[in-house]
Amino acid sequence: MGYVLTMRDHGATMTEQPDRKPIFSAKPASSARLADTVSDSIAAALFDGRIAPGEPLPPEGEIAREFGVSKPIAREALRQLGAAGLILTQQGKVARAKALNGESLERIYGYAVRSSLTRLREANEMRRVIETGIARVAAQRRDKAGMAAMQRALEEMSSGLGDPAAFTEADILFHVGLAMATGNSMIRVQMEGMRSVQREVSELFSRRANRTRADWQATIDRHQALYDAIEAGDGTLAEQCIIKHYAAADIASLEVAGKLKSEKGRDR
């Protein structure tokens, strides 16, 4: 229990009040980086679920009191969290927690892959390196939500056969589902961040002038083989499937990208 001193006309009174349980694991803030210390502690509360997506954060004044800092420092901490995409801040409104996702990474990767063919190749290589390991872990854990997402993606790829936009979105869903199948939220966030890379590669792939229905079906078949390997719990086979998938996709997408680069060179 705690006590609050209240001033009244006839004098001061002490009233007993229950202690408020702090939301954050507040630590003495270092004078060198007060805002960083505050934002780190609030971020920890967001990551471990003490503040659920959509829930409001305490007002700036309350945050400042809990950490023993000024309101401008609390405001800067919230600004940092907003810039990182962890909370939603609006002028005159209370800040709210956002769902943990790869939105910020997706924007960064999107700018990169659209900037040059070199960045696109680097980003696609990054995907291949990361997803090879993800496939093995997914085969070991087979999280139900991830398996269901991959299965739904396969159905949507089949129904979207020949429709580049629908096929691309289903393809992206499959790879996010692959990450979800690991049961690791940070892997899922990373894969969500790479959606812009996958979208760019898929769009290039769809621009092949000689792409046939058999090409579309071959892509589905590679995804199905990967799903089957994961469902069977065969990590080695899952790795082999993802390597084969990227080998085929790289040839097609970079073939188109190289052609586009040549055409741009002739236009100069």
TrEMBL record:
The protein in question is named GntR family transcriptional regulator, transcriptional repressor for pyruvate dehydrogenase complex
Q: Which InterPro entries match?
A: GntR_C, TF_FadR/GntR_C, Tscrpt_reg_HTH_GntR, WH-like_DNA-bd_sf, WH_DNA-bd_sf
Q: Which UniProt keywords apply?
A: DNA-binding, Pyruvate, Transcription, Transcription regulation
Alphabetized GO MF terms:
DNA binding; DNA-binding transcription factor activity
All copies of domain HTH gntR-type, residue ranges: 32-100
Is Transcription included in the keywords of this UniProt record? Answer: yes
Kindly give the PROSITE patterns that the UniProt entry links to this protein. HTH_GNTR
Cross-referenced Pfam families, in alphabetical order?
A: FCD, GntR
* Domain of life per record: Bacteria
